[in-house]
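Supplementary notes for students who missed Thursday's class. We covered one full example, reproduced here. Read the sequence, then the structure, then the short commentary at the end.
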Amino acid sequence: MADSGAAFWAALAASFSAIASVSIFFVQRQNLIQSIRPEIDLLDVSRPEESNELVFKKIKNIGRGTAQSILINSLALRGTAHLSTIHVPILAAGDEAQVDANLRFYWNNVEQTSDNKTIPVAIKISYLDTSGNRYETRYNLLAFQSVEKTIIAWSVAAPGVLLDDRTTIRKSMRFLKFSAWLQRRITKIGYRYPRFKNIYERVHILLSETKRRIRSALIG
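Structure (token representation):
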């Protein structure tokens, strides 16, 4: 009996020791990720008077680690807004880079649903850390055609442009490899079965249009 009791306590101690080791491993791994984590921010954002553009002149790495292969572009319904893709090779922690970017709005391609046309648009910034993990910072914006009629319930990014939210997410290399494999499979299925590709594109367009109508209804 004594031997079995000692074996039980020894096994229990070994289990707690293993749990502690795993916990320490994950804590150290998280500290490592945070120590090399970059984060890109937009600076000098403005909308010149009588202009159909949103301008931001600089970007800054406000994170702790170096950002590599920085790409900046926009996401919007086709024909409503456009930002030419910007590439910055590398940006150390605390450093700034001059980009002189212009996000242009095309109001003639927007349906009139209220007395003030709106365009939901996102500025997406993707970049890598020194370990190859990918980060994505997204500014979700809502632009108004008339600056005077702009509501001021949310954070204002620039005159006539509201900042809905700003998010930064990290995607590990394992996740990126799986996403690339899944995209290749979807593309292959699309080539083999054109009807599947058409359905996929229609669902994507429908979701984007539904989101735009909901936003217009909320502010209208």
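Commentary. The chain has two domains: 1-35, 40-170. The chain has a mean pLDDT of 77. If anything here is unclear, bring it to office hours.
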